[in-house]
Amino acid sequence: MKILAEALILVFLCIFLGSEHRICHAFSSNYNARTKCLIEPEAAQDGGGIIANPDFTHGMDGWTVYGQGAMKEEISRNGNRFIVAYNRTQSLDSISQKVQLRRGLIYSFSAWIQINKGSERVAVVFKIPRTELIIGGRVLARKGCWSLLKGGIFANFTSHAGILFESKNTATEIWVDSVSLQPFTLEQWRAQQDKKIDKERKSKVRFKVTYGNGTAMDSAAVSIKQTRSEFPFGCGMNFHIIDSTDYQNWFASRFKYTTFTNQMKWYSNEPEQGQENYTVADTMVKFAQRNGISIRGHNILWDDPKYQPEWVKNLTSDELRKAAEKRVDSVVSRYSGQLIAWDVINENLHFSFFEDKLGKEASSKYFKRAYELDPGTTMFLNEFSTIEYSNDEDVDPISYMKKLDEILSYPGNQGILAGIGLEGHFGVGQPNLAYMRSVLDILSSTGLPIWLTEVDVVKEPNQVSN
């Protein structure tokens, strides 16, 4: 990744995007058990939206086979009708329906999915003429129960599109039921979001004002003043703040949360082996503390090979192990108890520098050591492209939860305060809010806090209005 200004917007995303789940700090190591899995699927959401025959009450009307496979109707013991795609030889061999998409609309998708054996990823794919295939969402489907695949697409075009289902294991039969594709204008999406916020975040409050002896006070005037915002909201901070009074005043008057852009990274703190320098970071920490600004520690280690200190890149495995252990102990001990979070192994779904050289349990071990040194601080798995781009399977919510489960299942890590860090590096145009919400619904099933940790948008002429 490019080293960016790393503007930091810290919000509870499940509220920001209207997701259905509250956030808390409980965690169970078996994430499969946390996702909804039903013996019989629920009815299609929104009545199926623009999907024809969404619950297959009329057999296979409106549906066709895509690719070289076949489809058949099945009926459960309880009389529920569903469709099975079978005899598949290509990953996209499945059932299909053509729909019309209109420019500027958000399309929220859902379907209940089951497979005939084991567990496999199943994706919904939108096939647009003269355009690459667009992944709309994924689910980890299993034999024996129905799982909800959620997602969607933002249409920056007007065109017909084919809805397909993908499983890379062609031996898998894909069972489908209760399919829905519901269009929303941006205004309708916002109204739906506001309605959920009102439901989750607002309630009636009754005041009872009394004298000291407990008797009611008549005609009492009560004034309420908001003293702070409820959601964490912050900005990235760089070293120029040390010498600029204007920067200091601007920052302290606006933000109560921050992450340093580079000043806590290994290559900044130890550019030459054995020559540690925390002078700049220490000064920035003191400024933040004087102004009541909470700090996220970014980062202890970075799994991208490009962003190791130059002297680290040619170390032997044994030398790297000792150097990395020293780094973890040094930076975490120095700021223990002073931060609200640590990004422990930054971007270790996309990259694997330490795992390749020190073994697949390297990340888990460093999470464990960091928490031992700073047990009151939340330890984050921080990644990019999880919410921004649906086509990156390496960091989709299924892969994210698998990695998180791997780390927290490591002996001694069960009690760690863990967090989900989503970077948020957005490209040009309207983000796919339907897909983003589905990702958050999946990740929130962990019960862990979800933070948008870095936010930036590619520059374009209409950036402000967009």
TrEMBL record:
Domain of life, source organism: Eukaryota
Signal peptide segment: 1-26
GO MF annotation list: endo-1,4-beta-xylanase activity
GO biological process, one term: polysaccharide catabolic process
InterPro entries: CenC_carb-bd (IPR003305), Galactose-bd-like_sf (IPR008979), GH (IPR017853), GH10 (IPR044846), GH10_dom (IPR001000)
SUPFAM superfamilies: (Trans)glycosidases, Galactose-binding domain-like
Keyword list, A-Z: Carbohydrate metabolism, Hydrolase, Polysaccharide degradation, Repeat, Signal
Domain GH10 span(s) in chain numbering: 218-466
Family named by the database record: Belongs to the glycosyl hydrolase 10 (cellulase F) family.
Name of the featured protein: HYDROLYZING O-GLYCOSYL COMPOUNDS putative-RELATED
Organism per entry: Salix purpurea (Purple osier willow)
